């Protein structure tokens, strides 16, 4: 049986919650982590229509990019939009998991999906992340209890390194202690020195899972007061971070690049828009899915030929293009750019399910949740 919490674990390992912006609300927002799941629907937004599609397809989990509860609500009422969707989901037993800015910053996330559509090679983040925040735990355990303690640490979220799970290191040695008055030792007697054959068990863990892992350690360890080291690891350079910068294998005109993107993303009423000289030769590009005019200055400082993003406003875009040598701008509708990530997330879940030997029915929603339905000229 596959649980909702299993799928959540796979996704959070790929898109660590620690990568999310402080204001974001990522993770499981609706549903029971222990509920069985046999079908998963992937969507940009959780709307009435998406909730209906999940129910019709027999999915017990929606994986969305945009959090349903990003902006807090104070009531769950059937006559209000959020409440109506929540009640529909809960009654149908459909859970909701969202990976938002953590999927923006993660590898094989929104930024890489958009970079793939552009055709970028030799890519790197626009704004590198400081790291997902890893700890290393080393604990001393009697040899006979090492497997049980290790299993508890893995179950709490430790031991994941890249695409590998249940990773650990063991070294053998002899532990020594003398229980003092008031102690209740598992081994030995109060006042006498005790020597025990132990292993030093080492695992890494996401810093966001620190409390859960330590709680699991204390619950599983046979000693009254286990000895352990917890070390915060210095983040190494990685491909994590917002946006991507890279080059095209062959230069193209700005107009040709905009046309390439228009063919790659789902059709929307607004379409893909180009700012700047259509005939400009484009070799280097920066991309950022969703709303990206907050990084206009960063894109200009990078010295790229073109900046691809969405939700570009009139005055900031006008001022940006007025600078000498400013990059061209390509505005991709918010929904359309982020939809490109959904097949990546689906493939990740399929791959993990296959590795676990379980069957999951998955589907990427093609319902257009862009708010604009028509454009008139």
TrEMBL record:
SUPFAM superfamilies, A to Z: NIF3 (NGG1p interacting factor 3)-like
UniProt xrefs under InterPro entries: DUF34/NIF3, DUF34/NIF3_bac, DUF34/NIF3_sf, N-reg_PII/ATP_PRibTrfase_C
Establish whether keyword Manganese is in the entry: no
Q: Which UniProt keywords apply?
A: Metal-binding
Q: Which GO terms describe its molecular function?
A: metal ion binding
Name a GO CC annotation attached to this entry.
cytoplasm
Q: Where does a divalent metal cation bind?
A: 65-66, 104, 334, 338
**Subunit and partners:** Homohexamer.
Q: Which family does it belong to?
A: Belongs to the GTP cyclohydrolase I type 2/NIF3 family.
**What is the name of the protein in this document?**
GTP cyclohydrolase 1 type 2 homolog
Taxonomic placement: Bacteria, Bacillati, Actinomycetota, Actinomycetes, Propionibacteriales
